[in-house]
Amino acid sequence: MRPAGSNPLHPRRHWRAMLVLLATACCLAGHAQARSPARAGPVAAPSVAAGAATEDADTLLIGFAGPLSGHSSGVGKSMQNAVQLALDEANRKGVRVAGKNYRFKLAAQDDRADAGTAEYVARYLVSQKVLAVVGHWNSSATLAAAPVYHAAGVIQVSPASMSRRFTEMSYPAVFRTIPNNVSVGRLSAEFAVRKLGVKTLATIDDRTPFGRGLAEQVARTARDQGVEVVGSYSVSDKTSDFNSPLKQIRQRNPDLIFFGGMDWQAGLIAKAIKRLKINSRLMGSPGTVGLPFLMQASADGNGMLVLEPGAAPDKMAGWKSFRQRYSENFDTNVDLYAIFAYDAAQALVNAVRQANSIDPAGVAREMHRLRFAGVSGTIAFNEEGDLLQPTFTMYEVQDQRWMPLFQVDGGTLR
């Protein structure tokens, strides 16, 4: 193990974690209190002037949608800042399209990680005539907003949503800068079997498109690898009581418990496993690696495993420069998913330049032809908008610190 001072995931680094590597994730299901779209008004981000419409013909408006309040506000604000940074850098270089100068402007909205609010926010951003939107954070919000953007011809690039359903809709202008949960679930299960020697498995999911889809993929792959799945359980994405499924799991004594859901719930499950004296190893979902899990689980989180998208930040060629530029512009934590938001905005900027057009359909076509070196790695998309040749890293909690264990390149475990 490396000394604490050299550990890029050490929570006391002055850049403050990268980590919250990752207060994430995840992934990916709504933590906020649900509100009716009819009541929940759009919330403008501090960096955007109120009513920021395209009054200036030379302005290209880019939307951001994510949780700027609630449990996931840390990662949401970090992603928003990363998009702002990418647009500011593009503006400094100059944006000339078809002989005319343009300036990118950000319009950010708080979807509260809630599907109903996300749909309302999407309609608001469409009314502001955005060219594209970087968002949303969790899969349920992304799936609720996607039909609205599609109907309006607005490009949507998610830096965080992994549900396979997002790109399965075959909309021509949807993309993501992280892998989908099919590849994450498959590799998580393969790692458990090949590297850990797991023979029996139980899954718990939070009933969201992300959490349930991921847990189902893990179980499916595990069965294909000869693992006995001794139980699959679902809970509310808002519950803090896991006694019922865990007591049933204790009777079956599996080698591994996989949880498809959010970091704060994963922390509670880790504590409950220790309290109930269950001897199973725990593996969580992308977005769990970060300070929130460590704070929730404390020492009970030791041994937790999570497969996250991307290489470990200190192995990303563009990480050090990105972190410095981010820190010079924003006095907030750099979350892992900020990297993917930055790359999403970079993809949009590059596609506009490559298309030499501000027509959304033309820009979307160029998005499918892009290939460039992003902070997180090579950015290129397949015909459905999924990331080509993704990289993953398996992390483990050791002495209450997240440590990278194993890197998977090209979506193949070797």
Helix-strand makeup class: alpha/beta
Shape: elongated
Q: How much of the residues is beta strand, in percent?
A: 15-25%
Low-confidence stretches: 1-41, 43-57
Distance separating the two termini: 23 Å
Q: What is the rounded Rg?
A: 20 Å
Write down how many β-strands occur, each being a DSSP E stretch of 2 or more residues: 15
Per DSSP, the total helix count is: 12
Helix content: 25-40%
Order of helices and strands: EHEEHEHEHEHEHEHEHEHEHHHEEEE
Q: What's the overall average pLDDT, rounded?
A: 87
Sheet with the most strands: spatial strand order: 8-7-9-10-11-14-15
| Main β-sheet description | 7 strands, mixed
Commentary on this structure:
By secondary structure, the protein is an alpha/beta fold. Helices cover 36% and strands 20% of the residues. It has 12 helices and 15 strands. The chain has helices spanning 73-93, 115-127, 139-152, 165-168, 181-194, 209-224, 243-252, 263-275, 291-297, 319-329, 336-355, 360-367, and strands at 59-66, 95-97, 100-110, 132-135, 155-158, 174-176, 200-205, 228-234, 256-260, 281-284, 305-309, 372-373, 378-379, 391-398, 401-409. A 7-stranded mixed β-sheet has the order 8-7-9-10-11-14-15, with helices on both faces. α8 (263-275) runs parallel beside α9 (291-297) and α11 (336-355) crosses α12. The protein is elongated and about 70 Å long.
